[in-house]
């Protein structure tokens, strides 16, 4: 990369289809991108995959860069951050799914084995179906409120309210059992 190339010019070159510009962008920001991905994922292989995917995203979305709204580093590291968080969430879901299928989910086994597990199941059964569904998506499947809202086609505020209501109802129901 020549010293006259500014960061926005690199992105503009990507938009124009200049493959060498992607390499120059990587040379300039790859280290920071990897450090961020590694910090979020906690794993070298995952971080490498995240950085690769994020740079491909940046290549595909180069047309969307607006230098008036963000610096190239912030724009690019946004791709890295989103990909890394998605990777961590995906791994948690896969791990939880495997554990649940194999019967090795310790907290589930412990709760199911005792009277407390019975109380939790009974309390969950008393929830409204939409409250139970939102609670399951949030706490058992690992979705964020924004993801649940998108999945259910509801406003995020509605999902937050439903989740809060479900938790308050559970607290009330389980509080009376423990006393």
Q: Can you offer a commentary on this structure?
A:
This protein starts with 6 loop residues before the first helix and ends with a helix. It has nine helices and no strands. Helix content is 80%, strand content 0%.
Beta-strand content estimate: under 5%
Which stretches are poorly predicted, pLDDT < 50 over at least 5 residues? 1-5, 109-113
**Bulk shape:** elongated
> What's the main sheet like?
none
Strand-pairing-aware structural class: mainly alpha
Tell me the number of strands. 0
The run of helices and strands is HHHHHHHHH
Ends apart, CA distance between termini: 69 Å
Round the Cα radius of gyration to an integer and report it: 22 Å
| Arithmetic mean of pLDDT | 81
In percent, how helical is the residue content? over 70%
Number of helices: 9
Characteristics of this structure?
single chain; 179 residues; mainly alpha; 80% helix; elongated; disordered N terminus
Structure at a glance:
With 179 residues, the chain is mainly alpha-helical.
Write the layout of secondary structure elements.
Layout lengths: L6 H9 L3 H23 L2 H17 L11 H31 L3 H8 L1 H12 L2 H12 L4 H8 L3 H23 L1
